[in-house]
Amino acid sequence: MTAPAAPLRIVPAIVGPTGAGKSALALALAERVGAAIVSADSRQLYRAFDLGTAKPTAAERARVPHHGIDVAAPTERWSAARWADAAEGWIAACDAAGRAPVLVGGTGFYLRALAEPLFAEPPLDLVRRAEVARELDALSTDALRERVSAFDPGRAGGQRAQLLRAAEVMLLTGVPLSTWQRTATRTPRVALRYLVVDPGPSLAAQLARRVDAMFAGGWLAEVEQLTTTVPEDAPAWHATGYDVWRAHLAGVLPFARAHERVLIDTRQYAKRQRTWFRHQLPPTSVTHVDPSRAGALDLALAWWSAPAGACGGPPAAASAACAAPNARMTSA
Fold this sequence. Notes:
The protein has helices at about 20-35, 60-65, 80-95, 110-115, 125-135, 140-150, 160-175, 175-185, 205-215, 220-225, 240-250, 255-280, 295-305, 320-325, and strands at about 10-15, 35-40, 65, 100-105, 190-195, 285-290. By secondary structure, it is of the alpha/beta class.
């Protein structure tokens, strides 16, 4: 008789679209409860790409320990599986330091790789893989998204790294990535309970202010410096806005058009993230909060301290600790 599987460890995750305010709320929460933050952001991995990825400042990192930031060279390519492997180590480091981990970020595919079964990848021809990588790297992100939509529409909402992965798997195996994940799975690593941070309709104006603040803080100068040291085809350049500012510096786009393009791309990215979090997270594990409303930190603290299965858990298990804050929940 097979012994029952041990229950998975439950790890809290604060997620939401870019610019929603999740990092500030997570910082306040982690500081209050003595937790450490594990970044689930596919662009904050890269060293030197700072302003446009909204990395926490040195002062913020001094207030609360952070993991998963500045861990990769701009030329490295990180898959969701690689991040999940690293995240297990960062979570262990939090435990060793006596701090509870809280995952924070908007890269849903990373979180899914940690909490849901990954597929056991079949052997891939390394020579053919390199050829496919060169072919796909030549495509724009829009063209890549259109190609992925044709054979694996469920994967078409991701960022460029996820699109490249989906296209690569399909071209090399003839089987969509989503099919591999359903039929050839490995054991999940943890279970997640989510606090989805989203200010609702005010996000659009917040994003405009954020882009302006990044520019005022020296984003264009950062890009100019990076163009002298980072190869043009480095994966880090695919962070929202960097390719556009690089085109502006090369004289391809005037400033006004570049600024408008960055804002449009940022809003479109936020929209894709909202859609992903709305449809891909298990509803019984999700609590929502508008960070701009009074009491947002109190709601986050109630979510943090509630027993597993209370906030965002099965309705029958909901506790009084979460009942009042949840009455003020907003839709993500």
